[in-house]
Amino acid sequence: MKLLVVDGNSIVNRAFYGIRLLTTKNGEYTNAIYGFLNILLKLQEICNPDAVAVAFDVHAPTFRHKMYDAYKAGRHGMPEELRTQMPVLKEILKDLGYKTIEREGWEADDILGTLADACRKNGDECFIATGDRDSLQLAHGGVKVLLARTKMGQAVTEIYDETAIMDEYGVTPPELIQVKALQGDSSDNIPGVAGIGKKTALSLIQHFHTVDYIYKNLIELDIKPSVKEKLERGRKTAYLSLDLGTISTQAPIDLQINNYVVGNGDLNKAAITFKRLELFSLIPRFNLDPNAAVDSEVQEVKKREISRLTCVDADYLWDKLKGSDAYFYPNIIDGEITDLYFSFGDEIIVMPSETPEYSYFVRNFFEDESIKKYSYNTKELHRLACKYGVELKKCCGDLMLSAYLLRPGDNNYDLQHLCLEYGVAVPEYLNTLGESDITVSISATVKPLFDKTNKLIEEAEQAELLTEIELPLSAVLAKMEYAGFEVDRQGIEDFGKKLSVRINELTKSIFDGVGYEFNINSPKQLGIALFEDLHLPCRKKTKTGYSTNAEVLEGLKNEHPVIEQILEYRSLTKLKSTYCDGLLKVIEDDGRIHTRFNQVETRTGRISSLEPNLQNIPIRTELGREMRKFFVAGKGKKLIDADYSQIELRVLSDLADDETMIKAFNNGDDIHSITASQVFNLPLEMVTPQMRSSAKAVNFGIVYGIGAFSLAKDIGVSNKEAKQYIDNYLATYSGVDSYMKKMIDLAKDKGYSETLFKRRRYLPELSSSNHMMRAFGERVARNMPIQGTAADIIKIAMVKVDRRLKEEGMQAHLILQVHDELIVEAPDEEAQKALEIVTKEMENACKMKVLLRADGCIGNTWYDAH
Which residue among 99, 329, 478, 785 is the one 20 to 30 A from 245 at the CA level? Predict the structure, then answer.
């Protein structure tokens, strides 16, 4: 048989510290449980065991403590966030059918050793899974160790047997105990021999194999006198360390491997626990019944026939829907809607896209205002409406958007996941062949899910956020995606060639500066070139060699001319590969780039752009800004580009109700110069551009919760000076200081921070015992209301601009949003009016104590208009 023995404490610690703190909406910590179970599944994939045992330590003295009372002294206690997860994890393992073992007076290591020894004697295979190298001493006689470790920043599992250990250490597995006896182990407080380090200990055992042999022959051994002297002085502690470091094979446990075969446990209970812990992705991975985890009143699941699966009379379905609330699910494949699934109680009617009547039905159904539409991912439905030249009217609900508002920290909003999260059973529907049809089954959950989420949206006071901002915005984004942004293909190609010429010049110059050719893109080769061959001062090393990141290179600018060339080379190669070559690949047949906007990704509510990401077109360098020249208005059209002026600072002044800041903005004063005069205690006319720049860093840093250390680094002053700047700032804008403290207290009380429009971000980090984690939570509590409210305002502006352009009967339309910037494409004759509409609607997106300001320009290209 093949036995997998898991070092429970070691693996759970790796899971806990390797995954950010996760909690349920009720505040129950889950990251260690989630990580441990994922690792367990991976381990089983690696060795495919017949049986599994999970060993845990017991919080009580062991025989080693009796032998040496300082054993493991000084170890930090288990964090409370991890401690609360341990009994839950053990209960889950039991319910999943796994056997857990713990014995008072014995460590988990001894349980591993005892089971490993039993397997050796019985001729069974044994795999020991751990993150602790102490267990490598067991890796012999058919026993292998699956060592979890971090390699180049990635979690990996490496398999060790006698050969692997000999290759790495030059000793046999049992000899590793002898090494430890000499060098000791600070993590377990095993003393070893004072003055004997790892290198010396390893060399001694490679030559002499055992502590016994060394001490029996110490006088005759050909080793340095100083080493002999240390060994003699440490004879007693060497033998003590040998006993402490040897894993016992005598733990009083069940040695019958058959008894560790994974049983049935209580799988329904496990599914219910996973649901409570919101670990929905683990339910299918452990082959549990998802319907075991739903509310009791809907556990009854029957097999039903699908009413209509292929051809359907469009008028029949349309008549059936008229004047009703339509609950339907769009099947989306490769970003395109295929079939539409309509739920009528137990009956599901499918409108297939290949049916000749499909386009006729979609046009009439979408335009029919007597039908309220409740669906999923309505942005894709709006795109389909654009394709057919109609509007999706009376769109009243979107499950994806509702789920996003309720749980903005999630990264999965598909219907199967939502069914688990909200306790909705997935009924089983059979097709004409008698097989389960999951898409049909999922479509039957749309209405029950709306029943659940609508209630929660109301309780969270987010109905207006959903219906007035997110739902109408999905239509605006769909139209923007469908319209796309025209580009100058030839211009991009020519710019790419220009960059290639300069990249080749830089490459030659870098090779000349270093003295030989190498791979500039290889951090390892570049590190050797800079720090070994050019002898530049090494500022930072990583586990894999020299660090050559941007921060390190920036600090070396004055050390050698080649550094500036490398920085320029990196900038230009990224510009060419990502933006020139990358954009050329996604220009569609209409000569336009059609990005996709993601409405449910960020926790602050900001919209993101992907495939390609047009929000990332570089603007900080002149060459980067050149890319905007290739985004052009269509023939006979102009681009209107408008962006908010300092919107986050304006939002801060309003939320903080800071009279000084509000007055400055409403008077049209330069807020950064005013801040500089206060921070540096100088008259306004004496503020220099450098002072204004530093004050600007303070202004925006406050929004993002910056501390003195980071500010000092950003503006090149001492920590003390940076702290003084921040203190002066908060003294000047006392409302801001009060606001920051108030936001932290409110978030601690509620468990979340929220925007002016009730968008929430949940903050379990605020209750963490870890100072760094808690400080992160406090920074987010301060800045999320600011950033999130600014994001909400730009969304409102988009909806208003789109609505106003439509009401005015104009052809002008939005084509891109980049953070606080909106871009409209308009016919030449509409350009001026469109500019006036865009800036006015942006400035009036919402009423605040501070005036919002939007600045706009008209141009033939994005570059000209910005």
Answer: 99
